[in-house]
Amino acid sequence: MNSTASFNNQQANRFINALVIGAGQAGLSMSHCLTKQGVEHVILERGEVANAWKTERWDSLRLLSPNWQTRLADYSYIGEDPDGFMSCAEYISYLESYADGLQSPIHTGVEVQQVSSMQNGYRVITNLGEWRCRTLVIATGACGKPYIPRLAETLPDDICSLTPKDYRNPQRLSSGGVLIVGASASGLQLASELARSGRRVILATGEQVRMPRTYRGRDIQWWLDQSGLLADRYDEVEDLERLRRLPSAQLVGTGEGDNLDLNTLQDEGVEVVGRLAFIHNDTLQFSGCLANLCKMADLKMRRLLKLVDAFIEQQDYRHEVPAPDVPEDLRVPESPRLELNLQRENIGTVMWATGFRPDYSWLKVPVLDARGRLEHDGGVVSSPGLYVLGLPFMRRRNSQFIDGVGKDAEELSEHLAMYLEQQLHVNQSAIA
Amino acid sequence: MNTQAKIVDNGVNVGALLDAREALTEMPAAAQFQWKADCEWVRGTHARAKVQNFFGLGEDQQHCKEFAFDLDHPEVFAAEDKGITPVEYILVGLAGCLTAGIASVAQNREIQLNRVSCSVEGDMDLQGILGIDKEVRNGYSGIKVSFDIDADASKEDIEALVAQSQKRSAVYDIVTNPTNVQVEVK
């Protein structure tokens, strides 16, 4: 159910049991689950349904997960190409049809400007008036704003500095070569696209999560899904903080089973260098750590593939699937570049593919730690009645992925419904 | 049959290190350390450095005694070779830092080390410091560290130890990344 921007009845105090902020995959899944729990609620969305997918993605983007895995709560792909990868436009219509089937109102064009605590709930100030709610679900995603390292401030003014959110296609980029900072899925995909368009591309690499697209005849996601690795719980793994900070896996959904790693990029002419360490005027310096970064990426990839091998043994799949086809180790240039003069080398653009952070600038409830991160236990935020969805490894390894958000929404909606019931009970006994 | 699990002991108190990590996460101010060295010119290229004090955990700290180091140039540089060159101290620091890291990571991963040895080679083109060619840098053009490790672990696990040690090494960071240096005259 989709109600557009204007509210006909601009009541001063609209009160609701549950309010969901954001109508992307997380918010829509939550709405579906809340309806199942019988919880009356609304969704507020700053733009339109699937807003980030409509306004913040580059033209050629396809999902990283195959169609069969593009599952939301009680909703999955029923087309003829389960092993394909949706384009951005396809995914938008996929989300829109899910939204059409929901029973609760989605108020689009409503930007939340401030959320604060009040007795037994939250006060939500928007560009279109105020809401009050007993419970609140933050479903604005993990990618609210690009994270750009502080040294970006020292980049010369005549260099175009942008993030994957601003990028659309190679033609729209200013002239000259491109330095891409960050070896996430976005960083590598854009490096490849720009190199293939004829641009000179240099990639400054940080930590990498290397993964082949297919392994032993299947998409890697199929193995991760079947073996249960994606469902690993947040309270059962070691070093959760590190897992929550990992860059995205180096994958691309071309539908051709293509790998995406520093080897394929070097084959396409991309120059690979170490982490960007320092900027002084026109000169950039890179860390001499590239060899170790590549070694770690190889070791971790092989460890992951061994888990897949172990799963195959355990399930007795050995005779049904091809032998291990571990990709060869990353090739490290003999002496990677340590310095780059932007003028001399005619670099016009620096692309910061250095990740994202959620944006909680509007959240005036004291639930952020010293580093601005939300304090929560598997999505149950430290302030009663407040929930979050869609963060990295929030409840499971796949919490941030499309496929993981449905299960999280289901569990958190149960928690939320129970909380509401208790609140009601407390209020009733107070009256009695 | 002895079913008792073998106790891994590399002589590293990992428990204390992990406790420290936890404590310093809570109190970032205590994590602010300052390392110090004093140096006195002797004669020619010979100097002697002394190290004893440092600051950390919010207060002044001390090594158990004062350590002294002679620095000089070798006879091929027409010097008296009273100590190793400053650039060799960098190699010593890198080797020591990576080795200590390997021991700590191995202890934490419950890997028994039997022998860890390494050799470090730093390549330098003297045309840099002698001002012959300004395209040549003063410092090392490249450093190669080669580890030979005997441990109760697979080759891949040993490689992972060495990789993790580099990831967490201060000296590795110092030599691979730029650092702002301020030199003043009193």
Characterize the structure shown:
- The complex is a heterodimer of chains A (432) and B (186).
- Chain A has 432 residues and is an alpha/beta fold.
- Helices cover 27% and strands 22% of the residues of chain A.
- Chain A is built from nine helices and 24 strands.
- Chain B is globular, with a radius of gyration of 20 Å.
- By secondary structure, chain B is an alpha+beta fold.
- The model of chain B has no long low-confidence stretch (mean pLDDT 93).
- Chain B has four helices and six strands; from the N terminus they run H-E-E-E-E-H-E-E-H-H.
- The chains are: A alpha/beta (432), B alpha+beta (186).
- The interface between A and B is medium-sized, with 15 and 14 residues.
Per-chain topology:
The complex is a heterodimer of chains A (432) and B (186).
Chain A: E1 2-3, E2 14-21, H1 25-36, E3 41-45, H2 51-55, H3 88-100, E4 106-108, E5 112-118, E6 121-126, E7 129-138, E8 145-146, E9 160-162, E10 177-181, H4 185-196, E11 201-204, E12 209-210, E13 214-215, E14 218-219, H5 220-226, H6 240-245, E15 249-250, H7 262-267, E16 271-273, E17 276-280, E18 283-286, H8 290-315, E19 339-341, E20 347-352, E21 356-357, E22 376-377, E23 380-381, E24 386-388, H9 402-431
Parallel strand pairs in A: 1-4, 2-3, 2-7, 3-4, 7-24, 9-20, 10-11, 10-20, 11-16, 12-15
Antiparallel strand pairs in A: 5-6, 6-7, 8-21, 13-14, 17-18, 18-19, 22-23
Chain B: H1 14-26, E1 34-35, E2 38-43, E3 46-56, E4 59-71, H2 86-108, E5 113-123, E6 142-151, H3 155-167, H4 170-176
Antiparallel strand pairs in B: 1-3, 2-3, 3-4, 5-6
Helix pairs in contact in B: 2-3, 2-4
